[in-house]
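DM between two lab members

TW: hey, do you still have the fumarylacetoacetase entry open?
JB: yeah, one sec
JB: this one, 411 aa:
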Amino acid sequence: MTTLLPSWVTSANSPDTDFPLNNLPYGVFSADGAAPRCGVAIGDQILDLASAEAAGVITAQGTLQTGRWNAFMALGQAAWADLRAQLTRGLSADAEPAPLQTHLLPMSTARLHMPFDVAEYTDFYAGRHHAQNVGTMFRGPENALPPNWLHIPIGYNGRASSVVISGTDITRPHGQLKGPNDDAPRFAPSARFDIELEMGAIVGQPSDGPISVAQAFDNIFGYVLLNDWSARDIQAWEYQPLGPFQAKATATTISPWIVTAAALAPFRTATPPREVPLLDHLHEPGPMLYDIALQVGMTPENGTETVIARTNYAEMYYSAAQQLAHHTTSGCPMRVGDLLGSGTISGPEKGNRGSLLEISWGGKEPFALSDGQTRSFIEDGDTMTLRGAAIGAGYRVGFGDCVGTLRPARS
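TW: and the structure you got?
JB:
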């Protein structure tokens, strides 16, 4: 296992930071009223890459001046590796601090923005434990998985326009609701609003036809935490026959820092054994998942946080590379900035469930918070926080928090 890479940025050497030199995640920030610009997190600091490139101490073909990472991603893998190498050299403990030191600012003084323009958004249903749990609730254990589930990563096309950055408040949605005992649907605020703990994979290279899983793996620039907010009561009424629509259109929250595939390379792991062999076009030539510890925290308004779930990205049945490769099989073009949601990441135990639908078993088993309150779904004022980090030898490669607070429905 790789060990901590020491940096002259002292805070980057703490075992508790999400952002050691091993990580170097990319984001977009603003400070002092200036326009948003590209930066990299290092310890409790942000290195202003726009000003560093303008000063000539970092080079990336001018793409760091754009206030988004799309133009840089489009440069390709050689440019990705080159910038990471420049930053690793310049921020390492044996480097002279002066060239980059003047471009640092405290992260606490900055506002974080969407790090890239989302071209398209596709969400998958690719976690075995989640699919088994949800299917059991609605169809019984013997019919929990649809017939196609063990053969292909199931997905649906979501709304790129609804993807928001961590810290954005979420408004409880209205929609058509029809309970099992209702004679007719009614229009009302969702009463069963939920989260889904996911990872998001960011496509960094375009493709205009089918690509292999290996090519797909190389085309993924990096990863974010992703919260797929879900109105379960709207979903229950609308989803047949074409699947989720308005139930998933309220918002999708992502964490602010893009953790690159290069930073996660030491944590690669294989997808699980399969009782049904996959067709050749979905075969993985090597480990293409990652060992990333994940958790969900729930904080009631004016209350304290309770961690309600812990799981790991390694629980996924299909990797992001398999999802991307499958996405292209019809000839569907993929673009720089496409975002792929993994699907809910749950584990085998009750404490590993990545949605409130599962934790409360459809609302039938309310769970307790640390202050004695109980929940089945999210109440107004509740704050949901997703966290994740790959744990190394004396360091962690983290994503920063993915946070959203639910506000009351508009009247």
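TW: got it. The longest strand covers residues 220-228. Residues 209 and 331 are 4 Å apart (CA to CA).
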